[in-house]
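Colleagues,

For the teaching module next term, I've prepared a clean inverse folding example: a structure given as tokens, and then the sequence designed for it. I'd like students to try predicting residues themselves before seeing the answer, so please don't circulate the second half yet.
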């Protein structure tokens, strides 16, 4: 029996990203994926299969060797992990590509300038993905038909001993994830065949573990494996996947969640979060409530009772912060990006299972203060951690010499937006995130196209807001919706009311109901247009253990003081009278700067900008607050 899902996710092929900040970040990421050399992406798989390609070895001039380094270096025990991330990202980005169609542009958008990858780039990315699958298939044959890893098989033998080895199951999970995503999003039977053959190898290894050391199955950072085996069980339905699911479903974290009120204490954060993705798909596959209950208990312990940074993170130095002690752990190693990505995926599972908007609100906060804030807008590179001490600076990865785990999750994260915006609930259309995009739905066999844009006339260097001149006051939360149908059809359009919204203005339609975090418009739709505006103003979010230190949050957006120390914040009357909105004409996504402020009444006034707009500047997020 399948688990009952409250909300249904749209097929990624039915969602088109439209010009705006999120598409810009997707495009920076896409260009990076295209830049990387195919042979370098495969280098460790070739080496493990006994091949060395021209240009990949040198004795006299090692600096001239055409290889990837950092965590992808042949001397790193985690080598090869990045390829799986790359495959997942490339598969999603090219999900809607048809080799024989004549559409142009990225995600069916227009290619008006060199910032936007066009159809040629889409085809190049798909061709690169096909080449990589072919390369992996060749390596698998060279290795005997089953093993296709970038690391030696003996790493898994070491897992059965007391000797140390660095996370071989993490590395192999990324490959399996990339292969499965390539099949799901592009229909590659070759990718599925490689994964299926590799699963045969896993069956043999698991049986060996059962004889020698059963605990080895749950070592080597196997957190994501259960989710993969359940997905393959759903695709293939064979007994070997039932065996693998059963072998990976008794993780000790599940038992701790059943028995304790803080199962996460002292745990490596990112080694635990993907385990819950396994719980989610187990619920979806079996319908057994124990999996849903474990997922909800995890969320309660990871977010609700633990507390979180204003940016959503609750980890430092890769480990969970003790409950409600966030301030004590603020430093240079807060909020590992992998955890942001995996917590968003967890929240998405919970949102679909429960329909509760608190999970969509969390996702929104994480998108702005993790996905955007931890990606370099120019290079697409991640910052591994998000430093939050006074006078922090983001440390960006390089394109070919680091390949951290967060480099991998970053390239995946920037392909996730289309999956998080729209959902269906029976005959209702739900808008969960406010990101310029369009989507096609089928309601009572009637095709419905919904488009949301920023309330602007054009998107170019002379962009103008619609309606009358409002002096630059219209914000990013002024949105225009258009609904087009092939014939009149009645349905509910449910728009999430953000938890931060002070007021809502809707023009062009009547609100039928406000309940459960949504405003609902019920009517017969044909060709309709309406505008929505959510009101917001900056608020203070104090640290739970240090109430005299707080971040300033404007809607879902964390603001950063451009200061190389803690400049403090003296509040005489209220925060609104302490901050002055700064507007300046720009030639960017918005005609006016958004969410920019300057303090007043301070010993020395300073500017505040969105944390995601900080690139190389020194910044301070948590300020000492004086309310006297």
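(Answer key — instructors only)
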């Amino acid at each position: 029996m399948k688990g009952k899902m409250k909300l249904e996710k749209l097929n990624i092929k039915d969602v088109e990203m439209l010009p705006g900040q999120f598409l810009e970040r997707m495009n920076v990421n896409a260009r990076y994926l295209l830049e990387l050399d195919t042979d370098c992406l495969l280098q460790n798989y070739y080496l493990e299969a006994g091949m060395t390609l021209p240009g990949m070895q040198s004795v006299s001039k090692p600096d001239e060797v055409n290889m990837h380094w950092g965590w992808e270096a042949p001397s790193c025990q985690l080598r090869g992990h990045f390829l799986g991330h790359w495959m997942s990202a490339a598969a999603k980005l090219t999900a809607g590509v048809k080799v024989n169609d004549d559409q142009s542009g990225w995600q069916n958008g227009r290619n008006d300038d060199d910032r936007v990858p066009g159809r040629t780039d889409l085809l190049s990315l798909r061709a690169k993905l096909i080449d990589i699958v072919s390369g992996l298939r060749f390596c698998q044959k060279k290795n005997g038909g089953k093993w296709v890893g970038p690391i030696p098989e003996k790493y898994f033998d070491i897992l059965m001993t007391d000797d140390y080895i660095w996370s071989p199951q993490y590395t192999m999970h990324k490959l399996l994830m990339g292969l499965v995503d390539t099949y799901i999003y592009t229909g590659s039977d070759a990718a599925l065949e490689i994964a299926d053959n590799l699963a045969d190898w896993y069956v043999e290894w698991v049986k060996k573990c059962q004889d020698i050391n059963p605990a080895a199955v749950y070592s080597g950072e196997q957190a994501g494996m259960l989710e993969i085996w359940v997905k393959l069980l759903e695709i293939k339905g064979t007994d070997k996947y039932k065996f693998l699911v059963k072998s990976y479903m008794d993780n000790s974290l599940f038992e701790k969640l059943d028995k304790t009120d803080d199962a996460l204490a002292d745990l490596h954060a990112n080694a635990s979060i993907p385990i819950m993705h396994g719980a989610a798909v187990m619920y979806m596959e079996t319908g057994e409530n124990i999996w849903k209950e474990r997922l909800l208990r995890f969320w309660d312990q990871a977010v609700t009772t633990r507390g979180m940074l204003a940016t959503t993170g609750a980890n430092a130095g890769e480990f969970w912060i003790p409950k409600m002690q966030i301030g004590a752990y603020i430093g240079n190693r807060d909020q590992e990006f992998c955890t942001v990505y995996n917590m968003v995926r967890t929240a998405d599972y919970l949102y679909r299972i429960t329909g509760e908007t608190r999970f969509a609100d969390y996702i929104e906060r994480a998108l702005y203060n993790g996905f955007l804030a931890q990606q370099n807008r120019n290079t697409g590179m991640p910052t591994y951690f998000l430093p939050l001490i006074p006078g922090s600076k983001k440390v960006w990865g390089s394109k070919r010499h680091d390949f951290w785990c967060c480099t991998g999750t970053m390239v995946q994260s920037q392909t996730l937006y289309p999956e998080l915006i729209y959902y269906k609930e029976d005959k209702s259309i739900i808008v969960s995130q406010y990101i310029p995009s369009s989507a096609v739905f089928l309601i009572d066999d009637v095709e419905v196209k919904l488009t949301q844009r920023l309330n602007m006339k054009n998107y170019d260097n002379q962009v103008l807001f619609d309606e009358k001149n409002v002096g630059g006051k219209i914000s990013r939360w002024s949105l225009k919706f258009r609904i087009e149908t092939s014939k009149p059809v009645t349905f509910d359009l449910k728009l999430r009311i953000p938890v931060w919204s002070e007021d809502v203005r809707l023009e062009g339609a009547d609100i039928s109901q406000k309940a459960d975090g949504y405003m609902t418009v019920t009517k017969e739709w044909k060709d309709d247009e309406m505008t929505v505006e959510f009101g917001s103003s900056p608020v203070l979010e104090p640290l739970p253990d240090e109430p005299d230190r707080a971040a300033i949050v404007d809607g879902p957006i964390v603001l950063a003081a451009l200061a190389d120390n803690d400049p403090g914040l003296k509040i005489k009357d209220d925060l609104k009278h302490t901050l002055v909105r700064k507007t300046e004409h720009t030639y960017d996504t918005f005609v006016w700067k958004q969410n920019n402020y300057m303090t007043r009444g301070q010993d020395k006034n300073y500017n505040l900008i969105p944390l995601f707009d900080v690139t190389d500047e020194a910044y301070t997020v948590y300020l000492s607050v004086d309310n006297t």
